[in-house]
Amino acid sequence: MTTRRRFLRDILVAGGALSALGGISGIARLVRAGPMDAPNHHYVFAYFSGGWDVLLGLDPRDPNDFTPEENAIEPGYGLLPAAYQEMVSAGGLSLGPYIGMLAGHTDRLAVIRGMSMETLTHEVGRRRFLTGKPPAGLQARGSSAATWISSRLGQDDAIPHLSVGVETYNVDQPTYASALRVGSSTDLKSLLTAGAPALEPTQDDILQAFLANEATCERSRHSPTLRSAEGARLRLGGMLDADLASLFDIRNLDATLRDRFGIASANETNTPGAQALITFQALTHEVSRCVSLQATSGLDTHFSEWARDHGPRQMAGFDAISRLVTALSETPYAPTGFTADGTSWIDHTTIIGFSEFSRSPVLNVRGGRDHWLGNSCFLLGGNVRPGVIGASSDNGMQPQPVNLETGAVEPGGQIIRPEHVLRTLLVDAGITNDEADLRVDPIRALIPV
Amino acid sequence: MRSSSRIALLALLVVTLGACDDRVPITEVPVQPGDPTPIDLGTGPARPRRRMDIDQLDQSLRSVTGGIGWVDSSGRDLFVTNAETLGVPDWVSFTNEDLEASALFVKFLDDAARSSCTTLITRDAAAPAADRIFFVHAEPSAMMPADQTAIDENLAYLLLRYHGRRVAVGSDEILPWRGLYQDARAATDDPNVAWRTVCVALVDHPDFYTY
Questions:
Q1: Could you give the CA distance from residue A334 to residue A341 in angstroms, rounded to a whole number?
Q2: pLDDT digits (tens, 9 = 90+) for A284-332
């Protein structure tokens, strides 16, 4: 994009001047990196907040075959509204009654079942799925997978890693790979819009030059906090210059585009559909390499609201991802420097949907479901092989060992954990050595790496 | 969008502003395990710095601007309005405040600086000398080189007020700030515009929001 080239040119000029005074390594890296260095892969991390019920979505069971008495599994479909009491069969996959529009993408959909989260704590499960490492207490250890990928592939992007409402971590990667975290499209628009009152352009240049010069001080260069602050200032300047705010102004986007994401009102700026639209814009306008979004929330249904609320909330997330997949499928892949070859954006974008854990396979005495160690996740797009990998057990939906080459349940295989999935994504992104120190093998049945 | 001439100006200014004032040499002292030689770790350039949280920042900005802070046209505190976006814990869904100096933080800090400094400079320039909190040692209309001492005294006062740094008027530490004022003043006919740029720089500078 012209605007990004101009941004890099600005940085080149400033970086050259700064180098004369000691320089900042991040700037040098920004300048060095070119679009041709990066494979044409993009990634979306869709977080379903609160702990999802896999019986309603990714790992259903037939109520006629599974009972709490014999299998410690209680699908509970009879408690749901009449339209959602049956499993869904699509593309050879059995899916839960609230799988929603995602059932229309089984030609690309891979489901991993029978995973182990080894925790019943929201923060621990969430942070393990983000970083691939068990937290220390509640504290995340290591950088998010999205941060790793952004550090390797996103050097040339205006916002390498955009996160809408999802935690991200960067403990050992370059500053530019830290996520730009916002709570909603409104936040993002505010961030990308120059504030008022504005300084005169010349005064602004003088101010920025002064701050850049201050960042060359010994004290600044040896402080991670001050280096991070300078990196943020440079990124902010580039983002404002690139005039990106209009891309994320949902109220003023074309109504047809809003319709594609199921956004009924222009005031819906933070619904699952709005988040999917932000993701679509960030990817296809070459703003971001990785996007983390909160596909849905409010899934922590311990009480009788489970029957009423859990399914629709979960389905809203599936539908938002489904709309994103459709829109990406319908958009030819032709980013700057890439000769169109008939592929679409979904051919170059890998989406992972996950939650911190699943819900207990048996209803509790209050008619809800509590936390459960087992889990599932789904991936689609990019190089993902469609199909099912692994399976939860027929008694209590326990994790089971899986042959990572074939994806079949097999004694002597490995229990799949979040780090297996993230290692697979990192290898897919070109990080073939285990630099993130996840200490597991990739799932070759999922992506041929 | 920056034009080529503005980019050239930017590069030139980086050079003319001169080197920063605190180039503390780092001396490596090789020590073997078990070596009893005492090492003075000091409080030098590697001392970990920490970003203020939003409540601290709000209070600090109000303090240095004489109570102005960052408010909208209705007087609502915009640090409070934007608390969720800025990562202030709501103690329901999250309890940790992210203290990274992120792009989002830097953006809103800059918005706050421009807003509060515009109000402060306008108010202070029109106030009687005894009531001023920004133009304490120099009149807004002070000019270099005739009023250099007064301008330096005012900059030293502002560095103490905004950054808590006691800087001698004749020291090298004042030079970058004097350079900033001179560059800003040379680019405008309005002295208040130049002083506003200095004010915004004082707030945008990491020495204001880290400790």
A1: 8
A2: 999 999 999 999 999 999 999 999 999 999 999 999 999 999 999 999 9
| Chain A residues within an 8 Å CB radius of B48 | 223-225
Which residues are CB-contacts of B117 (< 8 A; sequence separation ≥ 6)?
A: B65, B196, B199, B200, B203
Interface of A with B in 17-56 (CB under 8 A): 17-18, 20-21
Omega prior to B140 cis, within 30 of 0: no
Q: Is the pTM of this model over 0.90?
A: no
Identity of the amino acid at B169: V
Q: Tell me: the pLDDT tens digits for A156-200?
A: 788 899 999 898 888 888 877 888 888 888 888 888 888 888 899
Which residue among A181, A206, A226 places its CB closest to the CB of B180? A206
HSE, side-chain direction, 13 A CA sphere, residue A248: 29
Residue A396 to residue A374: CA distance in whole angstroms: 9
**CA distances, A283 to each of A66, A269, A327, B59 (Å):** 42, 18, 11, 39
**Cα-flanking dihedrals φ and ψ of residue A48, to 5°?**
-100, 105
Instruction: Considering only CA atoms, give the Rg of chain A.
Output: 23
Token digits of residue A432: 């073939």
Q: Are A258 and A266 in contact (CB under 8 A)?
A: yes
Query: How far, in whole angstroms, is CA B204 from its chain's centroid?
Result: 5
The verdict on A380 touching B (C-beta cutoff 8 Å) is no
DSSP state of B137: S
Distance of CA A237 to the CA centre of its chain: 25
